[in-house]
């Protein structure tokens, strides 16, 4: 068992006092058999009314509502949790899904819905052709195929720190040969979906006590990866940025079909068009 503390602080600065709209916060980890959340405190300044709810994917979402005006918005999330995931997991895949192609049950297919459909345009079929290049033989091992695609993403893209918002399309990532962790995750998930396999994007934290993982800053950082649904085994974590499988060093906060739905903090303000001065984000994982 690994005991982890995470302090995630986001600070927005404004040149003049502004009124803040309701802000949407996705900062509380998804609890599971392998992740036990011991405590979570959320501090917001200026003072705000916090309302909690779960979205369509079961993510915990806090809505912070403000009154008055301010020149600084500070949001601090403090977590204590236990991770018990096996660093060398064994996946009990159903016999029917051991080899590709396999077919989901009608119920699984209905529930996966958009998670099994490509979200980005691929009019020339370039991404599907790229994904199918990893299908070796008539009925390849499903898990080995998924590992090969994840490794293929890592070998096709050079990691870069990209502070700008948004993500590249999978085709843009292949053309540029570079991307951030969110671009790695999108390319992998879309490649898997092009093979009619369900996948979703995960946003959370990377725990890296040795400071050797790609995309990590110090002992940890915010991170993005993907999960693939395989009958029997369920959702399997793939982190193409670090060429890893399983969630022993990953702290999932939220899942969705697309990374644009997973912003840790989102909201707007009413004030001068040039009022926004800048923001600071700090993540400490110990």
From TrEMBL:
Q: Which organism is it from?
A: Hydrogenophaga crassostreae
- From the Swiss-Prot or TrEMBL record, give the protein name: Transglutaminase
The Transglutaminase-like domain is annotated at 173-242
PANTHER family with a match to the protein in the record: BLR5614 PROTEIN-RELATED, SLL1233 PROTEIN
SMART domains on file: TGc
Family annotation (Pfam families): Bact_transglu_N (PF08379), Transglut_core (PF01841)
Name the domain of life.
Bacteria
